[in-house]
Amino acid sequence: MLDYDFPLWRPPSEGDNLIIQATLGCRFNGCTFCSMYKVKDYRARSLDAVYDDIAAAAQMWPHAHRVFLADGDAYNLPTDHLAAICDRLAATFPHLQRVTAYATPFNLLAKSVAEIQHLKSKKLGLVYVGIESGSDLLLKKIRKGNAKQMEQGLARAAEAGLKVSATVITGLGGQKHWQQHMDETADMLNRVPVTFLSTLQLRLADEVEDRFMEKFGEPFAWQDDRAILVEMRRLVERLAPPAPVIFRSNHASNALPLAGTLPKDKNRVLAQIDQCLELGQGMRPRWMRGL
After folding, report:
1. pLDDT score recorded for residue 291
2. Whole-angstrom Cα distance, residue 47 to residue 85?
3. Separation between Cα atoms, residue 139 and residue 4, nearest integer Å
4. Which CATH number is associated with domain 12-278?
5. Which end of the chain is more exposed for a tag (fewer CB within 10 A), N or C?
6. Contact 264/236 with Cβ under 8 angstroms?
């Protein structure tokens, strides 16, 4: 049996897949909106410990074909360390199709294109990156680096052929900065391709709300559900990605679940948003939402 170090998080799309903890915590762990990993100090787990977990997992899930490497930014590990884990996974699970991990733009920029391609050749071909915003102002307010680093990290992944599943947080700019938030996010995504794009609606756990408000540096006025839908509409309307993007807003935090491929399905997605704005149809009840 795997002895996970809890709390343990993973992307919604990894819910049915094997999780192996290659690291504990998050090396960056400074984003003001995030309550994950606050009770853990970051550390890389030894290869022997990871190999033991892989062996134990093989006893329970011998046919595992997808593996997510936890915790918060396992892509921070040195390339040879990650490659060794991928090699052991491939040797253990004959049906292995892909390996994934969370990554930050700092992780991506710390690796060369050749290193990223080397890991991709070992099936680590997709990473989850929290863009949150393309606005330099907002990225600095939430203590997540800056827009130049974000764009450079995404561009490095694209150059190497690494798939990126990116997330954007609606509501992050509040009532004052929402237009800048959506416009500059769309502009960034129109310059650098991502494979998947998902939205999360801003929610703050009690333990991080005070710090978020303090570091924001000015009074923050929350957007209501209707304003969030207007934000979403502006983002979708402005998106003209350089390659097709699979778009989702199905995370439990979202007021309105949406799905489509952009730009092909843009008009349909916009029509769904408009219908919800006009008639309230499709809005997820508040009791069904969560972080």
Report:
1. 60
2. 7
3. 32
4. 3.20.20.70
5. N
6. no
Q: Is the peptide bond before 71 cis (omega within 30 degrees of 0)?
A: yes
175-179 contact pairs (CB < 8 A, 24+) = 175/221, 175/222, 175/223, 175/227, 176/218, 176/221, 177/135, 177/137, 177/138, 178/223, 178/227, 178/230, 178/231, 179/234
Q: Side-chain half-sphere of 139: how many Cα atoms within 13 Å?
A: 22
Distance CA 232, CA 260 (A): 13
For the cut 90, the answer to whether the pLDDT of residue 287 exceeds it is: no
Residue 267 three-state SS: helix
The number of angstroms, rounded, from the C-alpha of 159 to the middle of its chain's C-alpha atoms is 19
Which backbone phi and psi does 237 adopt, to 5 degrees?
Answer: -65, -35
Q: In angstroms, what CA-CA distances link 49 with 43, 133, 228?
A: 13, 36, 44
CA dihedral 270, 220, 139, 70 (to 10 degrees): -80
Q: What is the mean pLDDT of residues 234-249?
A: 96
CA angle 118, 55, 121 (to 5 degrees): 10
DSSP code string of 99-130:
EEEEE-HHHHHTS-HHHHHHHHHTTEEEEEEE
Q: Can you tell me the distance from the alpha carbon of 228 to that of 170, in angstroms, rounded to the nearest whole number? A: 6
Six token digits for residue 129: 């990156």
How remote is the C-alpha of 156 from its chain's centroid? 17
The tokens for 176 are 């004052």
Q: Which amino acid is at 201?
A: Q
Averaged pLDDT for residues 232-241: 97
pTM of the model: 0.95
Compute the residue count for the chain: 291
What is the rounded CA–CA span in Å between residue 124 and residue 153? 17
At 121, list the tokens: 């050749």
